[in-house]
């Protein structure tokens, strides 16, 4: 293979991960010129190009050194890691990315009274994830038949070609539509940044490191919320105890109301309605939760 000095990132050409992955890269300061065939996008600012491919091909492209990084579901990455030959370059999950959340689950027909994995012994389970399912069954000492299908796995029990399935679930709507119910979870998945276990020791490796740092900043800001509220001084301890994780809050006086304080807290994650209601019960008023656009400590 010809030596390259530009970094290549593989991502899904068209599917659930495409838009959020492009948005994430844009937030990291990467913009691309769309090429006519749309399989290769040339990076405009930084020397970073995009390969647009089927998501299933992404781990293999990294393992072959065709690209250095890839944005792909953990389900696809882990399946590749379990089924790729020993000679294949080992891959790493470099960062979880917080979108494309779903789970890989066992689902059974409504009438199957599932309580434990041992009940799957001797059953036929249809899946597109034979590696992950096989490992899960082995760990539990369950011997079951694994029927590998490329898609439309949910239909297999109805067709009589399987007794249960192992497939991705998000809302559960597809299972309900096929008279199935979720019985056990094998893997909690989300989109991840995948790469080789050792990044190349050249400009591409340096670029990948730079990108990882930017990504960390983007993820931190994306998940941060600024909480503003007013509290009587006597309730300050109770209110502070209920604040979601983050650095110490800032306290400010409220003009003309010496017994009141304005509190400002940077929270590390979402602030739920339930948390707000609890904080309000402790005495807080005038509460605002604001997204954080940029942060420079
Ligand atoms: N219902 C869902 N909700 C959220 N995320 C999902 C859902 N189904 C799958 N995903 C995640 O999104 C990834 C891509 O899903 P998608 O359905 O777009 O893939 P695909 O049909 O295999 O596409 P491709 O044409 O690239 O092979 C999955 O591997 C999984 O990580
Ligand atoms: O729990 P739910 O919210 O219903 O989502 C789960 C479904 O989503 C995915 O399929 P998708 O809709 O992408 O169809 P495909 O696999 O046939 O492409 C997955 O393979 C499940 O079938
Ligand atoms: Mg696919």
From TrEMBL:
Residue ranges constituting the ATP phosphoribosyltransferase catalytic domain according to the UniProt record: 54-215
Function field: Catalyzes the condensation of ATP and 5-phosphoribose 1-diphosphate to form N'-(5'-phosphoribosyl)-ATP (PR-ATP). Has a crucial role in the pathway because the rate of histidine biosynthesis seems to be controlled primarily by regulation of HisG enzymatic activity.
Gene3D superfamilies associated with the record: 3.30.70.120, Periplasmic binding protein-like II
Domain of life assignment: Bacteria
Record family assignment: Belongs to the ATP phosphoribosyltransferase family. Long subfamily.
Protein name: ATP phosphoribosyltransferase
GO molecular function: ATP phosphoribosyltransferase activity
EC number in record: 2.4.2.17
Catalytic activity: 1-(5-phospho-beta-D-ribosyl)-ATP + diphosphate = 5-phospho-alpha-D-ribose 1-diphosphate + ATP
The keyword RNA-binding belongs to this UniProt entry's keyword annotation: no
Xref: InterPro entries: ATP-PRT_HisG_long, ATP_PRibTrfase_cat, ATP_PRibTrfase_CS, ATP_PRibTrfase_HisG, HisG_C, N-reg_PII-like_a/b, N-reg_PII/ATP_PRibTrfase_C
UniProt domain Histidine biosynthesis HisG C-terminal: residue ranges: 223-294
The protein's required cofactors: Mg(2+)
TM ranges: none
Ways its activity is controlled: Feedback inhibited by histidine.
The keyword Endoplasmic reticulum is assigned to this record: no
Lineage, broadest ranks: Bacteria, Pseudomonadati, Pseudomonadota, Gammaproteobacteria, Lysobacterales
Compartment(s) of residence: Cytoplasm
Main location, first listed in the record: cytoplasm
